[in-house]
Amino acid sequence: MSILTANWAKQSFRLFLHELKRGELTIIILAIVLGVASVFSLAGFSGQIKQALINESTSFIAADRILQSSRPLVETEIDSEVDLENDSTADSKVDHLNRIAIDEQSQQLNIVQAEQVLMSSMVFAGDNMQLVELVAVSKNYPLRGELLISESVNDSDEKIAHAPVQGTVFVEEKFLSLLGASVGDDIEIGNAQLVIAGIAKQIPDASFSVFTSGVKVIVNIADLKATNLIQPGSRVTYKYLFAGNSHDIDALDDWVKPKINDAQRWYDIQSKQSPLANALNRAEKYLSLASLLGIILAAVAVAVASRRYGQKHQSSVAVYKAMGASLSHIRKLYALHWASLSLFSIMVGLVFGYMLAQLGLYVIKDYLPIQAIQPGSNSSTLVIFSLKLVPLGFYPFIMAVLTGLVCAVAFSLVPLKQLIATSPLAALRDEKLRDDKQPLLARIGQVLPPIIALFFLLLLFSRSLVLSVSLLLAGILVSALLLIVGRMLMSISRAVGTKSGAAWHLAMANLKRRAAANSVQLVSFTIAIKLLLLIVVIKSALLSEWQAQLPDKAPNLFLVNIANEQAKDVEDFIGQNDIVASDLYAVIRGRLTAINKDEVAKQVSKEQVDGNDNGRQGVGRELNLTWRAQLPKENIIAQGSWWHADSTTPEVSIEESLAERLQIKLGDMLTFQLGSDTIQVPVTSIRTVNWQSMQPNFYMIFSPQVLADFPASFIASLYVPQDKKRLMQQFLANYPTISLIDIDALIEQLRKVIEQVSKAVEFILVLVVLAGCLVLVAQVQASMEEREREIAILRTIGAKGTLLRNSVLFEFIALGAIAGLMASMAMELTVYLLQTNLFNMQTSFHFEFWLLGIVAGAGFVGLVGLLSCWRLINLPSVTLIRRTM
Amino acid sequence: MTSNSEIILKTQSITKSVSLENKQLHLLQGIDLTVYKGETVAIVGSSGSGKTTLLSLLAGLDLPSQGEVYLKNKPLHQLNEEDRSQVRADHVGFIFQQFLLVNSLTALENVMLPAELANNGNAKQEAQALLAQVGLSDRGSHFPSQLSGGEQQRVAIARAFITKPDILFADEPTGNLDKKTSNHIADLLFDLNKHYDTTLVLVTHDLLLAKRCQRSVEMKDGHLVDQSIVQKPLAEQNQEPHQPIINPANA
């Protein structure tokens, strides 16, 4: 007999179809559907968002990955060995990067490449000359972001461009004013004569650093040889840019990383210590965390619903068995029933999730241009999707199906096993399953498969063992604590309840009597509310921090190179025009030469290439030093103490990360070379610096007495509103040596990215809230049969409708309020841990959200409870009694 | 009852005990009962006397702590759950106090169930015929929640007879019904029983219902105190005065 015509299969399908039609499977199906749909949409949506954000922000480095080196890549493998022999500082790694290998690898992976060579050089235009930052680029540059060129100063028509045609250059606008040149003029760079072909209005990878030597001139890399600028000993930076789809880039990542030598750096936008990278990192963590919490919530809903499924079918199984159905018949019947249910739910979930993801992407489409790179083409094409559906790829599909299967199998294992094991005796006696009658070990055994499944899901989604383990452990710990606290609180409520009216009394008595069932219910309410609060709190903390980072009047201009005698005029100008500005900071160039008695040269040359982070370029070369009487804003003393304003002893304060890198401690004596002078100063404090504040920041700050007599230039950051910019330019026309750095464009870009992230975060929040609601509904539904019987009894003994309604309402309100309170406490703890460990944010307390938790908990649980019981309460007594007796 | 009648059910000194808070509680003690083919037997007694426990052992739903139970000569006390299920499938029908229809299946599908379990290819037709016999031919597509208590029990009775069981166990079949409906259901039960020549073992505390059986046995505190009461000889019982509900011509 084929499977489809077998009796058990026929019975199973018949049962499934009837139950489906009659809405008896709605909650369990909804739970699986939501689990699958939320995973699908979260994976699809946040995947797209991440990709779009990274695309958007990679424009800040003009590529997905950059290989940076102080020397050009060797052309062949033989060269690399020669190079190794000649190079005493190179390490002994055999597998060095060389040009041919990289080209081959890139070609295989469909990755596009570009090159950049950066150096400082004098440029001559007619009789004038200017030190510029020369950027030689290959024809594919930029791989990400846009280089915008206009043909004259007043031309608002900006064209997207790549490298200038050989023999021509693009220059920044201020270059023209500094040298009195215009588009079409000839300029001399080294031995080469080149023509100005356009004005660079936007350079995607323009540096945030205010200390770069200023004006940029972009030349074609092919012209570099003719300039003859690169000589032995020239200070040149080589950048190799790579872009491709994320999968290929990851593959390249794996291939390149082990081959990096000490003279090379390999980085992406997120490893750059920039405000943007930071915002992105946190947004990504948030999106992942929210997705994980969404999965947990959906899983809890499935767990609750499958338990109820098991209980509901018990009497049917008992009847089957009494009528002589064999165990294998029942096993096959219910396995097929559950499989049909799961498959049906997973399919609906996929469709629903796909629509949800598309809807989400559609809603934020205005905020989020999705960029797609076309491999092989030399441009990054901007595709702003309109009504077109975005291809989401296989990843969300696979993740969602896996989630659905894992949920369906792992969470049903125990309930189904218990269901199949139902004794036929249950047909004669009301022998319902009671967990609390089972030995502890058996109960632990029952929760094990769901926990393992949940862990597997977390791991699958986060790909972080630490995060998965800690979320899971925290969850188990919190659940155990909640069980205990919940029972205690319910005992207290009972005591309070006896002193209040009949409805409250009944409600509290009910709570107490069902303490075991209720504490399970309470735990899931609490977890749901807690996770929701968590998402809301973290979201608002993140958003407000991002907002704080970019306040309305964030500095948008830097004035650099202000001479001593000009400082007073600048201060006056700022004062007269009501411009928000930082103080003027003196800048004196100097070199750290020794720490105590140790020559620092060796340490520095090692440090210079040490893979990681801030201001590496600063040390080993000259540092920008300053002196101050007061501790600057956004600087916090970590060790030691700041000097008195009128201190006359020489002292220096060093930034924390640099101190760590150079292993400088309080009391160490530092030797600096300033021009021909040598000074020695003790370290008296170590500071943490907020590098993301848009103000001049320094590694080394001296007490005024030490540096005040050295010739210095000054620097300031200002917020100049658009209407005063012209005034500013007029003022600066009198001071041609002062450089103006306008970071408005960068700030605008940053603001845009933050806005996009915020939208994404809100969308995910909605999904997680949906998942949370379903848990609540599923949980209330789960207690429905028992309530039915109770209400029938109360009705029989003459309880009025209002009393029943109120007692049900109050019971759920009390349950919700207790859950809300516990959720708030748990949330506070979790937020603290997350802020300190995951997000590296300032910690904060959120009592306003406690109120929200309690009120929303009471309100929502009360409402859902009442609505679910509404039909029951209003059934005629006879019907109720007949249904339950 | 003649001595050469076939014995269909026989127990020998069965006991049933459970431990409750470390104490042994004896639900049944030393029960000896023999039921012959075609007999109708009522087990009566007050609540908690052990009637239902005895029924569960007789039907092989549970195992005795001690003693022997034979159903159609099969030693139920030696069989495992699975084999007892097979015995039930082959020989036993059930009627429960709570009707216990499968809520998600229609009346017709509920009646079909046991026949399908027995791989009867004609399940649907037979179920329809039986539904007609219990007067519910037009309610076959209704779900249990759409039927009254009496109608549900009629479906349950139809379900019990579809496999033409050798023995039918009924646990308080009228316990959840009003008096009028009860009488009607009892009539139906006894008529069908006669029609299919089934052995009926009925648990009830309704003495009127018990009186309709050929024999009553009384349970008291787990003991069978009296199993000698024979109401009427078989021949006489076959001529019950009420109008049969089913048409004898169908037999």
Description:
The complex is a heterodimer of chains A (885) and B (251). Chain A is an alpha+beta fold. Chain A is built from 24 helices and 25 strands. In chain A, the strands form 3 sheets. Chain A has a 6-stranded mixed beta barrel. A 6-stranded mixed β-barrel of chain A has the order 16-18-23-20-22-21. About 6% of the residues of chain A have low confidence. Chain B is built from 8 helices and 10 strands. Helices cover 32% and strands 27% of the residues of chain B. The C terminus of chain B is likely disordered. In chain B, the strands form 2 sheets. Chain B has a 6-stranded mixed beta sheet with strand order 6-7-8-3-9-10. With 251 residues, chain B is an alpha/beta fold. In chain B, α4 packs across α5. Chain B has one domain: Rossmann fold (3-Layer(aba) Sandwich). Chain B starts with 6 loop residues before the first strand and ends in a 14-residue tail after the last helix. The longest helix of chain B is centred in the last third of the chain and has 18 residues.
CATH H-tier superfamily of chain B: P-loop containing nucleotide triphosphate hydrolases
Beta-strand content of chain B: 25-35%
* CATH C-level label of chain B: Alpha Beta
Q: Order of strands in the sheet with the most strands of chain B?
A: 6-7-8-3-9-10
Distance between the termini of chain B: 23 Å
- Series of H and E elements of chain B: EEEHEEHEHHHEHEHEEH
In whole angstroms, how far apart are the ends of chain A? 41 Å
How large is the radius of gyration of chain A? Answer: 34 Å
List the chains of the largest interface with their residue counts. A-B, 31 and 37 residues
Low-confidence stretches of chain A: 79-94, 370-388, 432-436, 602-618
Radius of gyration of chain B: 18 Å
Q: Give the number of domains of chain A.
A: 4
The secondary-structure class of chain B comes to alpha/beta
Q: Which stretches of chain B of 5+ consecutive residues score pLDDT under 50?
A: 233-241, 247-251
Gross morphology of chain B: globular
Q: What is the mean predicted local confidence, pLDDT of chain A?
A: 76
Q: Tally the beta strands of chain A.
A: 25
Helix content of chain B: 25-40%
